[in-house]
Amino acid sequence: MKTLVIASGNAGKLREFNQLLAPLGIDVRPQAEFNVPEAEEPHITFVENALAKARHASRITGQPALADDSGICVDALGGAPGVFSARFAGEPRSDARNNEKLLADMQGQTNRAAHYYCVLVLVRHADDPQPIIAEGAWHGEILSEPRGEGGFGYDPLVLDPSQGKTVAELPHDIKNRISHRGKAMAALLEKLKLYPL
Ligand SMILES: O=c1nc[nH]c2c1ncn2[C@H]1C[C@H](O)[C@@H](COP(=O)(O)OP(=O)(O)OP(=O)(O)O)O1
Ligand SMILES: [Mg+2]
């Protein structure tokens, strides 16, 4: 069985990576199992932050590592919170306070369009000159109150109009099939066929 270090400390992401990869016979190991501390995410693009996180975990573990940098990009807010989604309401980071701030900033807005965006980066080793990079997006709308108990992060506020449900109301297998992360993972797995681990 192939082992892959997941360069994330986000429990919601880790759960989804396990759901996506365990059925493929990939042994998914959170970086915390190797005592990898949280990486810096100093960049203004998702891809740079994801690469930084993957390298950091691979450097410390000596193993291949997969990182995810993602966020919610809201049209009426000029794409914010975007790459700063995790820190939208400042420190200490909190999904509840981030969601409250998003609701407040969207008060009175009629344009509710938004998309989730995810970049995945896989490095075979810390100095890998050919990182595997894949992206995915998922378009929806920001509601004016939360709905649903599933998922994590901004999910209770994000409606998928084609499903008639918020992301937090979707069964996880459906989220994983249609989400920004699920689509990025499908693309990453295609690329991995060319350059296996
Ligand atoms: O499917 C999702 N459902 C709900 N919220 C989501 C999703 N995907 C990203 N998000 C939000 C969570 C966080 O506010 C930000 C990611 O920030 P991001 O830096 O990539 O992750 P993080 O700091 O939580 O964990 P880590 O960097 O250790 O992977 O976007
Ligand atoms: Mg982060």
UniProtKB/TrEMBL annotation:
Mg(2+) binds at E40, D69. InterPro entries: dITP/XTP_pyrophosphatase (IPR020922), ITPase-like_fam (IPR029001), RdgB/HAM1 (IPR002637). Keywords: Hydrolase, Magnesium, Metal-binding, Nucleotide metabolism, Nucleotide-binding. Its EC number is 3.6.1.66. One of its GO terms (biological process) is purine nucleoside triphosphate catabolic process. Its cofactor is Mg(2+). Pyrophosphatase that catalyzes the hydrolysis of nucleoside triphosphates to their monophosphate derivatives, with a high preference for the non-canonical purine nucleotides XTP (xanthosine triphosphate), dITP (deoxyinosine triphosphate) and ITP. Seems to function as a house-cleaning enzyme that removes non-canonical purine nucleotides from the nucleotide pool, thus preventing their incorporation into DNA/RNA and avoiding chromosomal lesions. This is dITP/XTP pyrophosphatase. It comes from Novimethylophilus kurashikiensis. The gene is rdgB.
